[in-house]
Design a protein that fits this description.
Elements: H1 2-7, H2 19-43, H3 47-76
Helix pairs in contact: 2-3
């Protein structure tokens, strides 16, 4: 559990049964992912860097997905 809290510190800050903290966390996460996606899209047209940005985009997407799942689990009270 300490490893999860170390890798995803903001997901564990969502309070149990507090809808406002969950919604704010999800909105901030979606905005940051959108901005990172735009930046990676602009860099994707450079030949060698395009491959690296595709890998980085996949990692960002995976990290965001796990963050969303963990924040929902914290909201539901399944993670302590």
């Amino acid at each position: 559990m300490d490893l999860i809290k170390m890798l995803w510190p903001f997901a564990c800050k969502v309070k149990e049964k507090d809808v406002n903290s969950l919604v704010v966390h999800l909105v901030v996460l979606l905005v940051v992912c959108f901005l990172i996606g735009i930046g990676l899209f602009l860099l994707a047209f450079i030949p060698f860097i395009g491959i690296l940005t595709a890998l980085l985009g996949g990692l960002v997407g995976l990290y965001s997905f796990v963050d969303i799942v963990l924040s929902i689990l914290c909201f539901l009270g399944m993670l302590k």
